[in-house]
Amino acid sequence: MYTFLPENFTPVKQKPSKELRPMLMAILLGLILFIAAVVAWCYYTVSLRKAERLKTELMDLRADGFVIRNQHGEVVFRLAFHSGRLDLESCSKEGEILSCTRSSTGPLNFFIQTVKPKDTVMCYRVRWEELAAGPAVEHTMFWEDAHWYGGSEMSTQHWPIRLAGYQEPVPYVTSDVYSFRDSFGGILERYWISSKAAAIKINDSVPFHLGFNASERTLFFQARYKDSPYKPLPGQQPFPELSYRVCVGSDITSIHKYMVRRYFNKPSKIPAENAFRYPIWSTWALYKKDINQYKMFAKLREDGFKVTLWTHPFINYNSSNFGVEMFAKLRDDGFKVTLWIHPFIHTNSSSFKEGIERQLFIKEPSGRLPAMVEWWNGIGAILDFTNPAARDWFQSHLRQLRHKYGISSFKFDAGETSYLPKQFSTFRPLSDPSIWSRRYTEMAIPFYELAEVRVGYQSQNISCFFRIIDRDSVWGYELGLKSLIPTVLTISMLGYPFISADMIGGNFFPNKTDGTVEIPDRE
User: Per the database record, which ranges form the Glycoside hydrolase family 31 TIM barrel domain (predicted)?
Assistant: First the structure.
C-alpha cells in the first residue's frame, strides 16, 4: 500500500530535544580542552628543547654561569659570569658546540665546545669574547670544599693552595716575590687542578689577570687590556677575550696526566749527574758581597765542594777581586765553578756602549733609547732576549768567560717581568710580558748540564734546574723554611722536574732572623 502526498506538502521540523544540548556543550568543551592541550604541549616542547640546548654532556649552562658534574652526579666545578649574564634566547647548539651571541651588556662571541679526548676525560672549551674595546671579561671560579693545586710560586706558599684576604685581579706575570710580596712568583703557569679531578687551563692568548676572595673561596679570572702590561698583537683589535679549557676525569691522577701531556712539553735532556749527586757551596750564603779569593780558598780547604761564585761579570770584571790564576787553581784542584749571571748591563760596563750600538737592549716605547731599569745593584739596561742578536751576543760572552776562566756553568738570576720598565718596546712585540722570561730561560739551553734559572713560564722543555726564590732563615710559610716543600711540590705540579731548593738553611740575613723564635714543627 502506497501513500501519495500532495506536491505542496511540507513536513513539520522538530526542535532538538533538551537532552541533546548537554551533549553538544560537552563536545564543544572537549574540543576547547583538546586545543589547549595541543598549545600547552607545543610550549612544553619548545621549553624542553631550549633546556636541552643549555645542557651539554655533564655541564649545565645558565645565564649567570655553569656547573659541571662527574659521572656520579656530584658537582666538581662551578663558575659564575661576573661581567655579564648570557641572553639564553640567543643561544643555539650545533653538534658539540653551544654558542650565544648576546649578553646583558651587548653582543658577544660565546661558545662552549665539548671534547672527549679519552674515555675517562671530558673537556669543555669555553670562550667569551667582547666585541668592543674597553670592558673587562671576568669569571669567578668557586673552589668550595675541594683542595686546589698549581698556579704559581708565591711569597706565602701552602700545599694545597691556601689564600688569605682579598685581592683585586692583577696581571698574572712573573715577578720577584722576595721583593714584591703580593705578586705572583717567577715560576708560574695558567693551570690549576682540584682534588675532585677537575682541572682548568687558561689559554695563552688571554690578557690574564688573577684575583681572589679567601672568605668566599673564589678565584677571579679576568681578561683586560686597559691599565695592563698585556698588549694586543699588531693588527689585532683590543677586544678582551677570556678563554679556557675545563677538564674532568675519574680521578686526579688521570686528569693531571692528561693535562700535563696536553699542555706541557718535556725536557729533551737531563742535567749532569754531578748536579744531583754532590752538594754545592755558595759564596753568597756565608759572605754575601764581601768575598775575595783568599776567603774563598780558606773555606774550600775545609769543605771541598763544587763552588757557586757570586760576582759581577758585566760591571768591570777585569778589575774584580778574582783573577785568571785563581780559576786555574780551582780547576786544577778538581773544583767545578759556576758563575752568577744576570740580564742587566750596568752603565759603567764597557758592554753598555756596545749594547747601545748593536741595539741589544729593551727600549723605551719610542724605540730609540734603551729603557733604564733599577735592580739590586743600581741602574742599568736590560737585554732584549726577543732579539736573536742579543741572545747570541750574550751566549758568546758566556762562552768566552767559560773558556778564559774554566767556568763549568752559570747561575742565571732574575728574569722576572717585575724588572722590566712599565712602558717598553722589544724587538719582537710581546702580547704577554712573561714571554720575555721564557726567552731568557731559552738562552740558557746551551749551558743546561749544570745551569740554574729562577724563572719559568712555559719552560718545561728547558733541561736546566729551576731554582725557587730565596728562603729566609725563619720557620714559617712566608718565604720561610716551612714553605720549602709546598713550593717544590707546586712547581713540580706545573711540569718542572728539575728543581733546586737553593741554600740549605735559608738566605741568612741578621735582620730576618732576629725576634721571636718559632720552633719547627715535629715531623
Answer: 315-421
